[in-house]
Design a protein that fits this description.
Elements: E1 7-11, H1 15-27, E2 31-35, H2 38-46, E3 53-58, H3 67-75, E4 85-89, H4 94-103, E5 107-110, H5 115-167, H6 172-184, E6 190-196, E7 199-204, H7 211-220, E8 226-229, E9 232-237, E10 240-244, H8 252-327, H9 333-382, H10 389-392
Parallel strand pairs: 1-2, 1-3, 3-4, 4-5
Antiparallel strand pairs: 6-7, 6-10, 8-9, 9-10
Helix pairs in contact: 2-3, 5-6, 5-8, 8-9
């Protein structure tokens, strides 16, 4: 610890004593100010005209306000209560010293003053004060560091919670609501712009997004990841941009912390939007596959029905032709009956096959119903993830200014 030379306040109603002590202190390297009574000294100290007071050397018996009253008043003042106080007086009895101690004095020196003794007492008390001041400063710095660490931990906890909430979001609108709840806890006003195909869909925490705000975000997407202008910041990612309209530019520490926090939040948004887009792409691919399958089923069913009908017609024509041919052959009755029996059996087997084919038609109908249900379900599940920018751009009664 390096010794720091400060100011000594000398209080006495005798100018010669003031001159003697002041000269002694100045020779030792201290600056000095003086007062003729306690009230005058109190006014000087409270005026903040004197900074870094190392010690106060005061007489006891003075007009208007004595030394006891001055010491007591200083000890009740938050900014002055730790200033070393030395009584320099001819009052040296035990009761007088106890009274000085009760008033809050640190030391006592009798008059006539011994210069070396006074210098030693002042130096010792000044060093003690300097050490206490440095310790207090370190304590405050430690408290500030601890508070910053707690704040950082709290901010980190919020970001972690948002990551968990983002993963559970059921739609882009739901994701935006969770984001805005988080940014609102920092007092931030935001707009989320999500890439939807070749366009941007805008969601504002106040509902309305002005055309000017939309235009600025669209233009700023070609800028850097963090694009700062005035109190506003735009964070750009491949599938979204986030506009913060009221960054705390007057608070450097908070500004830096929020920048870090925004980067973490936007990472979570990017990941969840990627999941949404992949789900939409997969749903579209499933729809396309199901549509192809349904078309194939329809074609197979149509071809099979045609074959059934053709087969039935062929069998019926064959039976008629066989009857006609038998009649012209002049066969024995037993031979005719045998041929008719064979033809009848073939017809019955053909009818049985036709009946089984009808069951296959029923299977095709059920398969078509299942495919139609899957297509309908995919469309329904995909709807909450669509972004209705028109809903978010409805006029809320006023057009907020961006600049």
């Amino acid at each position: 610890m390096t010794n720091k030379i400060g100011t000594i306040v000398v209080v006495d109603d005798e100018p010669m004593i003031i001159e003697l002590i002041s000269s002694l202190m100045q020779d030792a390297g201290y600056q000095t100010v003086s007062a003729l009574n306690g009230q005058e000294a109190l006014d000087i100290i409270n005026s903040s005209a004197v900074a870094d007071i190392s010690a106060i050397i005061s007489d006891i018996k003075m007009p208007i306000m004595d030394g006891y009253q001055l010491c007591h008043a200083l000890r009740e003042h938050d900014t002055c209560k730790n200033i070393p106080f030395i009584f320099a007086s001819s009052l040296t009895t035990l009761d007088e010293k106890i009274q000085g101690y009760n008033a809050g004095a640190d030391d006592y020196i009798p008059k006539p003053i011994e210069p070396d003794e006074l210098l030693l007492k002042v130096k010792r008390l000044a060093e003690k004060k300097q050490g206490r001041d440095e310790l207090t400063k370190q304590l405050l710095e430690s408290q500030n560091a601890a508070m910053q660490a707690l704040s950082y931990t709290s901010d980190l906890g919020r970001v972690v919670n948002f990551y968990e909430e983002a993963l559970l979001a059921t739609s882009i609108d739901d994701l935006a609501k969770k984001l805005f709840r988080n940014t609102a806890s920092y007092g931030l006003s935001c707009i989320l712009a999500v890439v939807d195909g070749d366009e941007l869909a805008f969601i504002g925490d106040q509902g309305y997004v002005s055309p000017l705000e939309q235009g600025v975000i669209e233009l700023a997407r070609s800028q850097t990841r963090f694009y700062h202008f005035g109190k506003r910041t735009i964070v750009n990612y491949g599938n979204h941009s986030l506009l913060v309209k009221n960054m705390p530019v007057d608070d450097e520490n908070k500004y830096g912390m929020i920048n870090d926090m925004l980067g973490a939040l936007c990472n979570a948004i990017y990941a969840k939007l990627t999941i949404f887009m992949n789900e939409r792409r997969e749903a579209k691919q499933k729809d396309e596959i199901l549509s192809v399958v349904r078309h194939a089923v329809d074609n197979i069913d149509e071809i099979f029905t045609t074959l059934q009908n053709t087969n039935s017609t062929v069998i019926e024509d064959m039976c008629e032709q066989m009857d006609t041919a038998i009649m012209g052959m002049g066969l024995l009755e037993d031979t005719e009956n045998n041929i008719e029996s064979i033809t009848k059996e073939c017809l019955e087997r053909s009818n049985d096959n036709f009946s089984n084919g009808l069951k296959l038609n029923t299977i095709f109908d059920g398969l078509r119903e299942e495919i139609d249900l899957c297509l309908t379900s995919n469309i329904s599940n995909n709807k909450p993830q669509q972004i209705d920018s028109a809903e978010n751009e409805c006029d809320s009664g006023s057009d907020p200014e961006l600049f």
